[in-house]
Amino acid sequence: MLFMQPSVPALPASLDFHGKTVLVTGANSGLGRAACLHYLQHNVSTLIITVRRLSEGEVVKAEILAQWEGKNEDDQPKILVFELDLSSHSSVTAFAAKLKAEVPCLHIALLNAGIFLLDWKVSPHTGNEMSFQVNYLSNAILSLLLLPLLRSTAEATGPPTPSYLSIVASQKYSDSRITGNPISESTTVFEACNDEKTFQPWSLYADSKLFVRLFVKELATHVDSSTVIVNCMCPGMVKTNLARSLSLPLRLVGRLVLSVRARSPEVGSRVLVYAAGGAGKHSHGQMLVVYENLPVISWIESKEGELMQAKLWRETLDALEKNSSGSIVSSTLHL
Ligand SMILES: NC(=O)c1ccc[n+]([C@@H]2O[C@H](COP(=O)([O-])OP(=O)(O)OC[C@H]3O[C@@H](n4cnc5c(N)ncnc54)[C@H](OP(=O)(O)O)[C@@H]3O)[C@@H](O)[C@H]2O)c1
């Protein structure tokens, strides 16, 4: 039945994260938490989890470690809890700096944290519209800040093994208003996304995930896949708390649809872990659904899509330069 989603096979038993350090953002619920459990089952050595409130991180850490009970204590993974709030540039840069100072290597970065909003909301920290800030801009800036560590980790590994930088996206990107009504040449992406007068509730999420898709496609052209594989993925529709901020009637309708159609977080997060650790070089610049690359919608490859991608890239690098030390990052990119 077309309404139902295809099944997701179990992760390959050959996936082995022994000796690897893996970062999962937004690890306290839904897909992030479930992805952590998969990494654990596949022998991860160090798991770095981020949360907005450290107290919640400690609870998740205890829950994850409880899964280890009865197994060899010498092999028990190390779990580090870090604070990260994607609505704030200073939190993103502070997190990246702390990670660099405290963690010598990073093999996999799974940038999972995200939100779904239908209301107009602005980050009090940055003044940017919240979905744009959290789902796109902070994840893009964090990606760029993590690249040097991901690259140096790959280069220090013998034989050289690429690291992974993987962002959770959504096939819903194709519903973005921007594909039918591109941002004009004279308007910046920031101006368009921060204009309350023209915002469209049902496009906020799709717009932010379209930007993620374009960013991954562009970033992949600046990074050698033999050092860092850059990709994104869509877990399909998954029963999580993502719609928590919607009105009660919408949540009730959503719950009904989810109960029939959605994957469990355990199943949906298989797609995350496969993309961020198993997909290999052919996933560079791509979006994975189940365990295969999903072709981009034709708009992305049109002249308009290419212009939008270039515009977004320029503005993202400017934002990085403004908010942190962009020069360090530039040296790791082919610009
Ligand atoms: N569920 C689906 O059907 C579906 C489909 C496609 C893509 N996705 C994507 O999957 C990812 C995970 O979502 P989910 O479905 O697992 O929903 P979820 O259970 O609501 O998890 C979202 C995670 O993101 C964190 N987060 C939210 N705002 C944040 C911020 N400002 N700074 C840092 N962390 C923040 C949340 O932390 P708090 O608990 O502190 O809010 C939580 O850990 C998202 O990127 C989402 O867009 C989900």
UniProtKB/TrEMBL annotation:
<protein>
    <recommendedName>
        <fullName>NAD(P)-binding protein</fullName>
    </recommendedName>
</protein>
<comment type="similarity">
    <text>Belongs to the short-chain dehydrogenases/reductases (SDR) family.</text>
</comment>
<dbReference type="InterPro" id="IPR002347">
    <property type="entry name" value="SDR_fam"/>
</dbReference>
<keyword id="KW-0521">NADP</keyword>
<keyword id="KW-0560">Oxidoreductase</keyword>
<dbReference type="InterPro" id="IPR036291">
    <property type="entry name" value="NAD(P)-bd_dom_sf"/>
</dbReference>
<dbReference type="Pfam" id="PF00106">
    <property type="entry name" value="adh_short"/>
</dbReference>
